[in-house]
Amino acid sequence: MSVLDNFRDWKAFLGERVEQAKQAGMESDTLQNVAYQIGGYLAEQVDPKNDQERLLKQLWDAGDEEQQKALASLMVKLVQDPNNVNRGN
């Protein structure tokens, strides 16, 4: 089963990677830039596996570069809050 199959698993996976990057000394701006690049890759290369991912893809596709960066930043912020990681599908 892929972490992309279940949105809760995806958030937990992303949260773990964000925490590892922070512990390795990655700056916040760099982390957000990486999240933006990953978001672009996922939007272009990966079919959404659930309703939440479909919504994120639609939001990504509707936004310009600045809005996509904001969405990526919000996803990073979302998974840094342990209360949010364990909620949802």
TrEMBL record:
Taxonomic superkingdom: Bacteria
Pfam families reported for this sequence: DUF3243
Protein name as it appears in the record: DUF3243 domain-containing protein
**Organism name:** Brevibacillus borstelensis AK1
